[in-house]
Amino acid sequence: MENKEMADFNYPEKYEIEEVCRNFVKRRFLNQFMQERGIFAVNASNDDISAILSNCILDSNAIEDIRMNAFQESNKNSLSGFTITSSQADFSVKDIYERARDNDKILMSKGYSLGVLTKETRDNTVGYKGQIDYEIRRPGRIQFIDKEKSQCQFFLFGRDKGEWQVEVDGTRTQDGKEVQKLFSKLIDKEKTQLHVLNFDNLKDLQTIEFFDQLIEKGLSKVWRFQDVVGLTFRRGRDEEEEELEKNDDKTSSSPTLTGIRQAVLEGGHLREDAFVKQFEEQGCIFSSMTLEYSNTETPEIIHVRAEFKGNPKIFEVSVVESFENVGVEGKKVPSPLPVKRNLQIRSEIWNNSREIYKELMLK
Length: 363
What we know:
Helix 2 packs antiparallel against helix 4 and helix 9 (about 205-215) packs across helix 12. By secondary structure, this protein is α+β, with helices and mostly antiparallel strands. The chain has helices at about 1-10, 15-25, 25-35, 45-55, 60-75, 95-100, 105-110, 175-185, 205-215, 240-245, 275-280, 340-360, and strands spanning about 80-85, 115, 120, 125-140, 145-160, 165-170, 190-195, 225-235, 250, 260-265, 285-295, 300-310, 315-325, 330-335.
């Protein structure tokens, strides 16, 4: 059996290992990977580490660890959304969308292409699944404006009378904004309102309360909250935060940062961390939190990030990592969740967040 597995195993090219480690794997994983195998590099950059690992002879398990981690990092979907309410008795977002799709020449001229709606059942609730294709326009290297095609899926669920919920399953923050923009063009604004989780409506202390309540609310019974393993916070609100969101190199696992206005921390027990508490006492806002949950019925562990992202900020939920505890020592091995379960977890967290936001807005 072992010989057959070895025969089926194709060792990657040197440049493939280097490219994957440099572009698709986080530094935290690389550090742990090297420590477990007795490989040490002092004051080494990501490029240095990628080159070192590409020159090492790694066994099939090590190659699989790198491949699986890189796969997870490059296949992350985030869920965002909004609600639409109307005073019209027969209000239906489904009907509005289908009418637009039947006569979408104007939308096509603006770069939109609307897909067919299909029925989608989730937690015994019948809804509809759709897809839009849209154009991203940006300054080009040669052309004055370059056009790039993108697409995303969304889900429509009728809630209370005159209220519909739209959930967007995308791979970039722009996806949620485009679906929101599309529906804002379709609705009658005199009789209908579109509601989002608006970060600017939260007071500074409420941003902290929002995430603390999200911890308390948790997930379904099979998932037990374990820890806060990621946290983004800052003093004040200005455009500098956008640079932080774009640059993962500013991530830190050290609690001894000083003289800073903003920080992205990764590690353990961050909610009780003395540095975070000091920042909180001096006045700050939270904009992102990564929560660790363990499954009570299986050896699964997931890291779920809830964050206000972009400008203007849109609230997103993503499963950033998923593992299984393997062996007596309980080693965490990357293990992607099935697509449907991943979506259900993100949807549950987003809906919990929406309820928390609504309650905070009533205070």
